[in-house]
Write a structure and sequence with these properties.
alpha+beta; Alpha-Beta Plaits; 18 helices; binds flavin-adenine dinucleotide; binds D-malate; binds zinc ion
């Protein structure tokens, strides 16, 4: 179990008793209270299969009221609870560490377009991102968020992690597009902040407390998301780029030539791509040391084509690329995106993934991957870099056949010290969760962490909501 590998001590919470199960079965119905160890397995293990808890109970509410009743009861009884969406989180935040009850949003799947604002969708937390996006198609809208886990992750999980993804550079993050939300606090109180107003300066903007707080301050039950119009013209291009300096120049030219239509600017190195080929049998149609994957979203294909042509001509003229593929055909675009989006899956197949998600200035961005290659032992299978170049977000990944503590100590805290020296962030988008909580001080000063802890104590005095997550074990 996780607690052994990470030497963490169980909090002073109650242990689940038969009478608690009786209460939950009475509140929900017995199909929505899972206690069979076989059924519980998938809720106890994270997507990376690197952390595991031993919860004896999963609850599946359908309504905010049910969530509220569950939390009120758990707070009175001092039972710890982990909110869980699609369980695709990458920092061990979504699974129990010990025997916490799992509150799954799986059955909270309703949504509607707001009556007040036709560009706003009001969705229950358990809506799967891709399903929601597909359903919005008929309204000519799209969710302004796209990530590789879209087929499984829930919108409530996305909001609770402030998920980034591949289109942040165009549509910004969820602090911008979530106009309002509803959440249930640890004691069952329903926080109703489900505003659909574009502007609202009446009082503290408390919704932001729940965006990115990873289930430690409340259970997000509904969200009001400002959607974007679905683009009429989409283009994707994969470019072969010889070195990182050229890659940065490609990005600059893209900003200048594509301007407002650029919707993604991703990158991958050849080690990432080799891993995808080895483990998933997928590979790009062009070969290179580095790849840029760009996308445009626009409303007028003639206008967009002209811009894309101007961009391609300039990067070719300046000798920044050695090859490239450009397409607007949906199936071909999908194939190009697949390589980038399935890298996490390809890495996972190699055994244990040491996964990092840092914000770094460009001057120090790819250098760390090269430094790490020299630091790591030969037992490492893959050491690679990819990520959201347009957001200064590097995904640095290492794999070994099995978990190897010596590899971990070569990476941590070295990488975090490097990140701090560069004034970056130890988490650009995945969050802190369980795995990174004791490294928080590399990104936040003691006064900041103290204020976080005070906020937690105010909203959840018994500390029952997602314990052992986000906040460090000690206050500096
Ligand atoms: P979970 O994994 O179930 O939970 C994540 C955290 O949120 C946990 O701390 C949990 O307790 C909390 N939580 C979940 N639901 C609620 C709720 N309703 N109320 C309160 N707390 C809640 N992340 C990115 O940012 N960008 C990416 O590009 C990206 N790509 C990914 C690609 C793959 C293949 C995978 C596997 C993951 C990727 N992720 C990415 C990470 C992950 O998908 C996101 O963090 C996602 O937002 C998690 O959603 P989820 O529903 O799976 O949440
Ligand atoms: C991605 O951008 O692919 C995700 O954040 C997952 C990962 O970092 O592997
Ligand atoms: Zn990412």
């Amino acid at each position: 179990y996780t607690s052994k590998r990470y030497s963490v001590k169980r909090g002073d919470f109650s242990c689940l008793e038969d009478r608690d199960i009786v209460f939950f079965k009475h509140l929900l119905d017995k199909n929505r209270v899972l206690t069979d160890p076989f059924d519980l397995e998938k809720y106890n293990v994270d997507w990376l299969k690197t952390v595991r808890g031993k919860s004896a109970c999963v609850l599946k509410p359908r309504t905010t009221k049910e969530v509220s009743e569950i939390m009120r009861y758990c707070n009175e009884k001092k039972l710890a609870v982990v909110p869980q969406g699609g369980n695709t989180g990458l920092v061990g935040g979504s699974v129990p560490v010990f025997d916490e009850i799992v509150l799954s949003t799986e059955l909270m799947t309703r949504f509607r377009i707001s009556e007040n604002n036709p560009a706003v969708v009001i969705a229950q937390a358990g809506c799967v991102l891709e399903k929601l996006d597909t359903a919005l198609n008929q309204h000519n809208l799209m969710v302004p968020l796209d990530l590789g886990a879209k087929g499984s992750c829930h919108i409530g999980g996305n909001v609770s992690t402030n998920a980034g993804g591949v289109r942040v550079l165009r549509y910004r993050n969820l602090h911008g597009s979530v106009l309002g939300l509803e959440a249930v606090l640890a004691d069952g109180t329903i926080f109703n902040g489900l505003s659909t107003n574009l502007k609202d300066n009446s009082g503290y903007d408390l919704r932001h407390l729940f965006i990115g707080s990873e289930g430690t301050l409340g259970v997000v039950t509904r969200v009001a998301i400002l959607c974007s119009l679905r683009p009429k013209s989409v283009t994707t291009c994969l470019l072969a780029v010889p070195d990182f300096e050229s890659l940065l120049k490609v990005f600059v030219v893209a900003k200048q030539r594509l301007g407002e239509i650029m919707s993604a600017c991703e990158f991958m190195d050849s080690d990432s791509v080799a891993c995808a080929k080895r483990n998933l049998g997928i590979e790009p149609p062009i070969q290179s040391r580095l790849y840029a994957l760009l996308e445009t979203h626009g409303m007028d294909s003639n206008h967009d084509e002209e811009k894309v042509d101007g961009f391609i001509n300039q990067v070719m003229k300046e000798g920044l690329i050695t090859d490239g593929i450009l397409t607007s055909e949906p199936s071909k675009m999908k194939k190009l995106w697949e390589i980038r989006e399935r890298l996490a899956e390809a890495l996972r197949k190699e055994g244990y993934t040491y996964k990092y998600d840092v914000s770094l200035p460009f001057a120090s961005f790819y250098k760390i991957v090269e430094v790490m290659r020299k630091r790591l032992p030969k037992t490492v299978i893959t050491c690679c870099g990819y990520g959201h170049l347009g957001d200064n977000n590097l995904h640095f990944n290492v794999t070994t056949k099995e978990f190897d503590p010596t590899v971990l100590t070569r990476i941590e805290p070295f990488l975090y010290e490097y990140t701090k020296r560069c004034f970056g962030s130890i988490s650009a988008e995945h969050g802190i969760g369980f795995k990174k909580r004791n490294y928080l001080y590399y990104s936040k000063n003691p006064a900041f962490v103290h204020m976080m802890a005070e906020t937690k104590r105010t909203l959840d005095p018994n500390g029952i909501l997602n314990p052992y997550k986000v906040l460090p074990d000690f206050e500096a």
